[in-house]
Amino acid sequence: MTQDEILTCQNLRKTFGDLVAVDDVSFTIAAGETYGLLGPNGAGKTTTISMIAGILERDGGEVRVAGRPHDTRSSWGKERIGYVPQDLALYPDLSARENLRFFARLHGLRGGRVRARVEEVLELAGLAERADDPVKDYSGGMKRRLNIGVGLLHRPPLLILDEPTAGVDPQSRNAILESVAALAGEGVGVLYTTHYMEEAERLCDRIGIIDLGRIRAEGTRRELVGLVGELDRITLTADGVQALPTLAALPEVREAAGRDGRVELTVDDARRSLPKILLAAADAGLAVRAVEVAEPDLESVFLHLTGKALRD
Ligand SMILES: Nc1ncnc2c1ncn2[C@@H]1O[C@H](COP(=O)(O)OP(=O)(O)OP(=O)(O)O)[C@@H](O)[C@H]1O
Is 231-295 CATH 3.30.70.260? Predict the structure, then answer.
């Protein structure tokens, strides 16, 4: 274990009757790192994080929080984890401020520390202006932001978020993603589950692709994309395909094909090679009308690894 590892889980396993919901899952998260568990509904994300959070008994494996063994009975680990479940755990008749005060006391905060922390979390969640309205009058996104705020009250060094943007409006979604990035910037380790590829790509330093209870592949976005050996594609729409031999001869171009005024190029790094390709096309007398760049994404990685789409 490296010194700044906030979470280590090894060989986690959970069965429900004959169903193996989580099968030999291992990964680590460092302080300040955001780790994404990306997989479709039923992949085993919630079961995995419930075991890590210490709210579900595991059938096998080990969890360490900041180096210490952690299970359903250990309060030391729970004090270091902020767990935000998918379902809202709020009192609808109380205001945001009242909800936060209640949960802050539950975490053992008292007196002036409750007041100060509640105000900080209201700001963080972007709810200061509506702090005294009953939660039942909030939008779905506001409730979700408050739910995350509750998980942050005790300043945990490890934050576990279970699909925090499911069903929220785009504005709240953006606010949630920004606040998670800010927390990671302050050194909080984040475990983030999602079935949205774009969120994993935008937010996560490393991603574990999970399907049928197993982690199929793990790495940075670039590493995962590299794993399946897919290359970037550039499509030029032009007045003809006469520049094809010139473009095919460029060292950046792996494959080139053209017909009906469209030139299709396969390249290693589209962003870097695009200016050179456009210059070469112009030199060869090709009038380019449109350019389209397609980089392989985690959706294609998922398809490659599991033979099915991330979303049905
Ligand atoms: N308490 C339970 N009893 C029986 N089966 C369960 C239980 N909890 C989960 N499962 C099953 O275990 C598998 C993994 O479920 P889990 O909820 O962990 O997946 P998930 O990736 O979080 O999906 P979702 O996004 O739908 O929550 C699924 O097949 C699910 O039906």
Answer: yes
